[in-house]
Amino acid sequence: MKIKTQVLVMLLAGSVVQPAFAVLTKAQLGEKLYFDTSLSEPAGQACASCHEPSAGFADPDQHLPVSEGVIPGRFGTRNSPSAAYALFYPTFTLKSGILGGQFWDGRAATLTEQAKGPFLNPVEMNNPDQASVIAKIQATPYAADFATVCGPFTNVAAAYQCMAEAIALFETTTMFRPFTSKYDAVKANRASFTAQEAAGLKLFTGSGKCSNCHVLGTGKNPDLFTDSKFQNLGLPRNPEIFQLRPDLPADFRDLGLGAVLNDPKHNGKFKTTHLRNIALTPPYMHNGVLKTLKDVVHFYNTRDIPGVWPAPEVSENMDGAFLGNLGLTSAEEDAIVAFMQTLTDGYVAP
Ligand code: HEC
Ligand code: HEC
Question: Atom 37 of ligand 2 has which residue's CA nearest to it?
């Protein structure tokens, strides 16, 4: 009762000044950590640097196929996916068909496991160990809040785990799942598709065969356009990556799920991504080899037509049922692109 009255008073007061003793919630702590560029070695890179809200929570450096780490000139081998809506990928499982997990290859089972990686990755935030990350947090203005939520800095392993949980919790807040696209407005009868967008949706679920993998809703989940399963689309390798990474052997192949499971049956398979905000996050695919949404649809439409595309990077285990030679016209390709452009959040009805 007492708490209720307090909340009411705060609401009535409008812009209340935060009392000095207010402690950050765990999700608010996660927000601080997510945007803090002082937690890399050297300082300068945060999660948000490669998963920037205005860039669909992917890398704003869209001219690069893969992201650059905090050390200039250091590159990974994969394109940054969106961190938004990632909360909806189920925990990685080998049961009921392999599905879910974080990263293109599902190698982190959950968001919490995922968040532990970038701080220590030499091609990302480059800290030598967990203790260095925790020491950097201890030097931030929110150190006291961190200790209140996560316990003493002396217990490095527990603090590191709690840090990752806080970031993961932040990644489940509404900022990461606004559902404010034109598509959502149309579903709620607050807007209507243009004729081209409507045709695109029909092709997406029809002769374009997209929704066989990018399924609309799953169970209780809202429409995310993914089944969270893994497929080898037979994408060509991206020569740009070999330029950025002269250390890679010429015959390097990214084996994806096959490397995670150490099982050649799954070589070349990557996670079917959700398509929310997809227009904001070029380039496309795990290796950034396709530059525009038109290129993406054209690839699905023509992969198996000789001479159109270079050879696949991994030619075994390729999906042949739903793509390769769809027989779509260029106008139909454009319609599917127009439909995907309705998945961008922040739609305002004209
Ligand atoms: C240097 C750029 C960079 C930084 C910094 C970075 N990431 Fe990423 N992130 C990537 C790349 C690249 C991938 C894909 C890697 C892969 O699949 O192997 C990725 C994958 C992810 C995914 C998986 C999404 C999916 O669809 O599976 C999430 C979530 C994520 N990052 C969140 C974070 C968080 C949280 C931080 C900070 C702790 C962070 N990232 C820091 C580049 C970055
Ligand atoms: C056989 C399953 C399957 C079908 C059918 C399919 N996709 Fe995909 N899609 C995937 C997988 C798997 C990936 C990630 C592949 C990779 O990076 O190696 C992907 C990636 C994408 C991406 C890039 C995502 C990103 O963040 O870079 C777009 C866009 C896309 N698909 C759109 C479509 C459209 C449009 C269609 C229909 C014309 C379609 N897909 C049909 C499985 C499928």
Answer: 210
- 281 CB near ligand 2 (under 6 Å): yes
**pLDDT bucket at 20, cuts 50 / 70 / 90:** low
pLDDT band at 5 (very low <50, low <70, confident <90, very high): very low
Question: Which tokens belong to 315?
Answer: 């030619």
Name every protein residue with a CB atom under 6 angstroms from any ligand 1 atom.
45, 47, 49-51, 67, 69, 76, 78, 80-81, 83, 86, 102-105, 111, 114-115, 118-119, 124-125, 167, 273
d(CA 235, CA 249): 19
237 within 8 A of 289, measured Cβ to Cβ = yes
Banded model confidence at residue 234, pLDDT cuts 50, 70, 90: very high
B/e letters for 300-332, b = 16+ CB within 10 Å, e = fewer, are: bbbbeeeeebeebbbeebbbeeebbebebeeeb
Q: Read off the pLDDT of residues 298-338 as tens digits, 9 standing for 90 and up.
A: 999 999 999 999 999 999 999 888 999 999 999 999 999 99
